[in-house]
Prior knowledge:
- The chain is α/β, with parallel strands linked by helices.
- It has one domain (28-247): Purple Acid Phosphatase, chain A, domain 2 (4-Layer Sandwich).
- 35% of the residues lie in helices and 19% in strands.
- It contains nine helices and eleven strands.
- It has helices at 26-38, 57-69, 78-87, 92-95, 99-111, 114-118, 150-163, 226-234, 240-247, and strands spanning 15-19, 43-46, 73-75, 122-123, 126-128, 131-134, 167-170, 177-178, 186-189, 204-211, 214-221.
- The strands form two sheets. It has a six-stranded mixed sheet, covered by helices on one side. Strands 5-6-7-9-8 form a five-stranded mixed sheet, with helices on one face.
- Helix 1 links the parallel strand 1 and strand 2 (43-46).
- The longest helix has 14 residues, at 150-163.
Amino acid sequence: MWEIVEKTISYDVVxxxxxxxxxxxxxxxxxxxxxxxxxxxxxxxxxxxxxxYGVDVNETIDLVCAEVDNGAVxxxxxxxxxxxxxxxxxxxYYDKLPDWLRESVALTYEELNLNQFEHIPWQQEYELGKIxxxxxxxxxxxxxxxxxxxxxxxxxxxxxxxxxxxxxxxGHTHRAFLDSSGIxxxxxxxxxxxxxxxxxxxxxxxxxxxxxxxxxxxxxxxEYRAEDHVSSLLRSDLSESTKQKLVGYxxxxx
Length: 254
């Protein structure tokens, strides 16, 4: 059970970019990194789920590792843990997935440079002053509960308060969210780079800026040729039914 904790405010950055759920879409990642560089951020935080769904497997890992060399923080998501578990012979999570998703995972795992993937400096969560960042929620690592309902958002706020945080930043839902309720702790979600599930089917990321001790957030849209990513999915070795499921997350292109 959590007990109320007082956190010391310590921000050594002015602007942070947060991205999540890349899902092997290297085109969206490249475009995002260009925008992030233009914003002159002090730190990049990647909230996990680097792979699955997309087919740019090792190119995505190469891009992430290059950012790690430049100081980026990488938090582990449920898909990241799944690949590490598979490497160790554990398939509990994989076995529960639907057939089409297991097909995507199997193709990804076959192509993956596992040695490079395993040597990413994974973190279970990341603390920046009174901000907590994790892949899914502020609960124990391995709890992949989605923060979709009002009940779960309220529960997350309570947990953040007990843990001494003023802000929680979480991905996992693939839907960008920036809390405008004025309630503290407040929540934000950067959305998904690689497989957006918002109504606009628009890839997004988040920036957080610090004015004194009060951080504020902003959602940014990512401009790139999503039709090129769709084409790469359609050229892949995935079955036709799986391809159609995957391209359905993107706009139709004529």
